[in-house]
Amino acid sequence: MNAVSNTTPLRYLTAIRQEHLLAQLFEKVFVPTAVYDELTDPKTPEDVRTTVVSLPAWLEVRAVRETGAATFPVTLHRGEREAILLAEAIRADVLLIDEQIGRTIAQSRNIPLSGTLGVVERADSMGLVSDFPQVLKELNTSGFFIAEALELQPCGVTTHAKKRNNRTENSGERGRARTFDKRIKSPLLYQLSYAPTS
Asked: Considering only the top CATH level, what class is 2-115?
């Protein structure tokens, strides 16, 4: 399973030393040049820059050519535009993006979505995270915004996620689900919600 990532998921997971979750969840994580440039910018925290510049085996940079045919709102940043275009070009299993405008546009283009919290939640449901509430706390401390409702109910959210993942897997669904969290019962807004492909 391959993913394309925008800047935020990589930046914050690396900042709290949880980027290894990406290597455990995905065979490869691709980033467009614009995202690589943002992650290696002098203003980015040094530990994040160092990790990205070292290009671990699971991370790969791809150049993206924007054409006149690719129309996006002016408010969309270059990194977000390139991440969406790259996800389409390589038919990624999921696009990792947190910014609401980018998510809305990607969803309108039928791209499977997740975000930073979705990665952590998925990893937790697979037993890859030893202390889910602690990871949420570290994310929050690093500057990543987490809704207060989620901080107050991390265990309930994880349980809800596990039940939903089991329903998806038991339903026999295959391929890439095109929708993300319905925002009905769980306050976790950026869940991983695509069906397994194997």
From this structure: alpha beta
